[in-house]
Amino acid sequence: MKKHILKMYGAAVLLFLFLAIHGIWNLRVTETRSVPQAGYTFLTDVVSSTIEDASAPIGERIILSLRVKGVERDCNVLAFYTMHQNVKVYQGDQCIYSLEAVPGLFQPKSPGCVYNCVELDEEMNGRGLRIELTPVYKTGSSDIPELLFGSRYAVVQYLLQANFFSLVLCVISILTGLFMLLLTIRRPKESADRDKKMLLFLEFFSVGIGIWKLFDCSLIGLAGARFPGISVVPFFALTLLPVIVVEFVRSVITEKKSLVWDIPGWVCLFAIVVTFALQVSGIADIWETLWLIQICLVISSVCMVIGVVQIVKKYGWKRNVKMGFACTCCCLVWLVVDMLTYYGDQGVEKFPLGLLVYMIFLAFMVVDRLRQSKERMEEGMHARQYKKLAYHDALTGFFNRAAYTDHIASEEFSPQKSVMVAFDLNNLKKCNDELGHEKGDIYIKESAKIIMDCFGEKGRCYRLGGDEFGAILSGVTMEDCGQCVEHMKEKVKKFNENSRDIHMGIACGYAIFDPKEDEDINATIRRADKMMYEEKFRMKQAEE
Predict the structure, then answer these.
(1) What are the counts of helices (DSSP H) followed by strands (DSSP E) for the chain?
(2) What is the distance between the alpha carbons of residues 100 and 60, in angstroms, rounded to a whole number?
(3) What are the backbone angles phi and psi of residue 307, rounded to the nearest 5°?
(4) What residues pair up with 67 in beta bridges, in sequence order?
(5) Taking the CB of residue 14, how many other CB atoms lie within 10 A of it?
(6) Which tens digit of pLDDT belongs to each residue from 11-29?
(7) What letter does residue 257 receive in the DSSP assignment?
(8) Alpha-carbon gap, residue 357 to 164, rounded angstroms
């Protein structure tokens, strides 16, 4: 069931991305100006009234009457923020500014959340202006915007200062999500799937929340008139969040399947389908169905609380359970704050408490993830060191007998065209007894160096025991191996000429796998050993 939910949810994400791109490029509003473009202050001497109008979407209009004084060439912008309201500004009987949505398929009836900037002519200084606000939806229909007057630069500066803290938190949230995504991509393949899923959901959650609150910021509303699709982005982001939140908490605290965790997914999918069906049919705009998404958030929060309680009762307060509980509390705080902002006092949004709470949790998660990543890197380094010790000879650095045996038994090893070489160091025991083990170690290391110089480029070299060495050569002929042996003998002779105390002797035998003669590769090794012992016997006779 979970796979079906995620597949359907993935399809919804793709649909949202398509609609978001479609909205940004194709959603349009009509914005007309009849005057050419050329500190700030709030206008308080404003008379407001609400009149009934049967032709208006909700049957009423808000009229704001005011006079603007001090209009100059570089101080001529009247700015105000509207949420889902058609706007017309009159100077006398002349409409000098209008903002209305252009109806169409997949296009809301509302122009969205826009920061209107009306540029005034110097001739309008001290003259009366009338602003008509026509609410498209009942929610927020009585909201009267603050009127700001000044230069365009001052207006932008004010909005930047007013939204600076929220903008910083949003950008940090998005960048943190992307940073953690890079950490997830670079995680080793042996990392648990559960950890990867948890990190992915946290990253999508972080980026989604950052995008939601960033595009919900009034500063972004400055571009709302030119790109009205921007105001729809927060709705898309908010719609996708409930399932991401639930799946994140689920991945943190448990791998068990439970209907409690599946309910939010089905509810959110149902809400998405209903929202689009109502939008396409023209029955209700997407903003009029925002309550469906809020219900999804409430249901998701309830399911998370139930799920966490069940896990606590069954497993107790483990580390991952505490983390899931912390995330649930953050989400609940955010939900309450967002509900108060939407339905209650608009002043709550001036301080992004919910976003701040989440950022605290996110910071904790980032630190925790970095700590765990560091621990895993250290564990990986130790594991590689242990593996190297397990498969390498400490004195020579060659692969050891365990590596030799495992390589022969592995699937990557092919006996065909494999030449097995056996080496034995003559008189090593005599060197240890007469010259000491320090000289014996030098004998072993110098012999290993010669073997590596002569055979290393053709295959792998191994130290199989005290005086026993071996090599596995691939893709070479017996003639090639014979040339390597002759090269080795020349190096041994040169070493003995320059050595005052150690007399080196390396007996060597080799054989290539022959399916007609050898049952398996071990038979080939025995033939190489036989050749090596015959060579060792001849070398001893020559010394006598």
Answers:
(1) 14, 14
(2) 16
(3) -60, -45
(4) 128
(5) 10
(6) 555 555 555 555 544 545 4
(7) -
(8) 17
